[in-house]
Design brief:
- With 305 residues, this protein is an alpha/beta fold.
- The protein has helices at 12-21, 52-60, 74-79, 81-102, 134-149, 171-180, 198-210, 227-237, 268-274, 281-293, 296-301, and strands at residues 3-7, 26-31, 41-44, 64-67, 105-111, 154-158, 160-161, 185-188, 192-193, 196-197, 215-219, 225-226, 245-248, 262-263.
- The strands form four sheets. Strands 3-2-1-4-5-6-11 form a seven-stranded parallel sheet, sandwiched between helices. A three-stranded mixed sheet has the order 12-9-14. It has a two-stranded parallel sheet with strand order 7-10.
- β5 (105-111), α5 (134-149) and β6 form a beta-alpha-beta unit.
Length: 305
């Protein structure tokens, strides 16, 4: 079994990544104390503490590291730019350098938000980013810092949905929670993205590591849609009232951080180098619903009880 160290394990990607691979790999995860019943080894640590990165690597002795740790709430990043920089830029750089010196394969998770959305097409890895928010700027700086320290690293720009520890971390959960409780809500018609089931994200990242890939990749779903359409698709699959979702422009929202209208990323490079194609959105949505039917959300949430 390959030993994999996962940072940010209590986040949406981290917890689903660990769950996805725990039967095939030796999982060690870093957590500050949210998880108490996890079926994998936990290193309790605040990675922003001095020496914490080296300590985690020395204790875990991993062959691969997947860095999911981040300050991912866009408005929180606007309020806490120093913390955003420490988590989204400085920490990835530390891990990248430490992994290179130890011969450990390193994957850093970035975001589709690095683009300004002005391109009327799918962004490729060759297109120049232009971040609009503190979150996006610190994540782009994190990408550059990772490669500066370790050119052999993988940086994956992602956008995913799935079940979280809190039940409120993903856009899909937002729609389900509100519709289940007969609460009306809005969906942006002028923000397009390429959502992928988080479990598929995890599977693809493992395949990339197994193939010893390196460099910058867009790891998102093959289908673009608006946030409004996404909500409608969720409602239909779960038998909820799609009419309670009203179409809305992001320009009329009260969000603090600036958002890009076009988050559509090309996955041609990923498909070519991986020699594989990510599942269609409908396939991921069906699995997401099956997880719901089989009690998967309750299972992962039990790790934090």
């Amino acid at each position: 079994m390959t030993r994999i160290l996962i940072t940010g394990v209590s986040g949406l990607l981290g917890i689903n990544f660990a769950q996805e691979i725990l039967n095939q790999h030796d999982v060690v995860a870093v957590d500050r104390g949210k998880l108490v019943n996890a079926p994998f080894k936990i290193l309790k640590s605040d990675l922003l503490d001095s020496g914490a990165v080296d300590s985690a690597l020395d204790n875990a002795q991993p062959e691969w590291v997947v860095n999911c740790a981040a300050l991912a709430d866009l408005d929180s990043c606007e309020d806490n730019p120093d913390l955003a920089r420490r988590l989204n830029t400085d920490l990835p750089a530390q891990f990248s350098k430490a992994c290179r010196s130890r011969g450990i394969s390193f994957v850093h998770i970035s975001t589709d938000a690095v683009f300004d959305g002005l391109l009327n097409a799918f962004y490729t890895e060759e297109d120049a980013p232009n971040p609009l928010s503190v979150y996006a700027r610190t994540k782009l700086d994190g990408e550059q810092a990772v490669f500066a320290e370790n050119p052999s690293a993988i940086v994956a720009r992602v956008n995913f949905f799935g079940w979280s520890l809190t039940g409120r971390r993903s856009l899909a959960e937002f729609f389900i929670h509100n519709l289940t409780n007969n609460k009306s809500m809005s969906g942006f018609t002028d923000v397009k993205f390429c959502p992928m089931l988080v479990n598929d994200t995890a599977r693809i990242l493992i395949k990339m590591l197994q193939k010893n890939m390196s460099g910058l990749y867009h790891v998102v779903g093959p289908q673009a849609m608006s946030k409004y359409q996404f909500g409608v698709e969720i409602a239909r699959r779960f038998g909820l009232k799609e009419g309670q979702i009203s179409p809305k422009s992001i320009n009329t929202s009260s969000l603090i951080a600036r958002r890009s209208n076009n988050l559509c990323l090309s996955i041609n490079k990923l498909c070519t180098d991986l020699d594989d194609v990510p599942p269609e959105f409908s396939t991921g949505l069906n699995e997401f619903y099956t997880q719901f039917e089989q009690g998967y959300p309750q299972k992962i949430r039990s790790y934090a009880q």
